[in-house]
C-alpha cells in the first residue's frame, strides 16, 4: 500500500498486514500518485508541476519532468494503465 506524505516530500510503502513502513521514497514536492500493479507515478499536485516514475522494486525515483505551466492535478490509474 502506498501513502503520500507531502510534509516530508515523500511517498511511503506500508505493509498492510503489519502496518509498518517498509520504504520511504523521496519524491520532492510530489504528493499525488497513481499506481498499477507494476508502476507508481507521482505528481506535484500540492505544490509543484513535476511528474516522476517510482520503481517499486528498487524504491527509487526516475528523473522527473516539469510540466509547468500546464499541469493540473496528478496521474490517474484506470483499468491497469496510467
Task: Explain what this protein looks like in three dimensions.
The protein is mostly beta strands. The protein has a single domain, classed as Beta Barrel (Thrombin, subunit H). The protein has no helices and 8 strands. The strands form 2 sheets. Strands 4, 5, 6, 7 and 8 form a 5-stranded antiparallel beta sheet that branches. A 3-stranded antiparallel beta sheet has the order 1-2-3, with no helix packed on it. A hairpin with a 4-residue loop joins β6 (50-55) and β7 (60-61). The two termini are 17 Å apart. The model has no long low-confidence stretch (mean pLDDT 74).
Number of strands: 8
Q: What do the pLDDT scores average to? A: 74
Principal-axis shape equals globular
Per CATH, the architecture is Beta Barrel
Number of domains: 1
Oligomer: single chain
What features would you highlight for this structure?
single chain, 82 residues, mainly beta, Thrombin, subunit H, 5-stranded antiparallel β-sheet
Please describe the topology of this protein.
Layout: E1 2-5, E2 10-14, E3 21-26, E4 32-35, E5 40-43, E6 50-55, E7 60-61, E8 65-66
Antiparallel strand pairs: 1-2, 2-3, 4-5, 5-6, 6-7, 6-8
Amino acid at each position: 500500500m502506498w501513502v503520500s506524505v507531502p510534509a516530508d516530500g515523500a511517498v511511503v510503502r506500508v505493509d498492510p498486514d503489519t502496518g509498518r513502513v517498509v520504504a520511504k521514497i523521496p519524491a520532492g514536492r510530489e504528493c499525488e500518485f497513481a499506481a498499477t500493479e507494476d508502476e507508481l507515478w507521482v505528481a506535484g499536485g500540492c505544490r509543484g508541476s513535476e511528474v516522476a516514475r517510482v520503481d517499486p522494486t528498487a524504491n527509487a525515483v526516475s528523473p522527473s519532468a516539469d510540466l509547468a505551466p500546464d499541469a493540473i492535478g496528478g496521474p490517474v490509474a484506470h483499468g491497469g494503465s496510467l
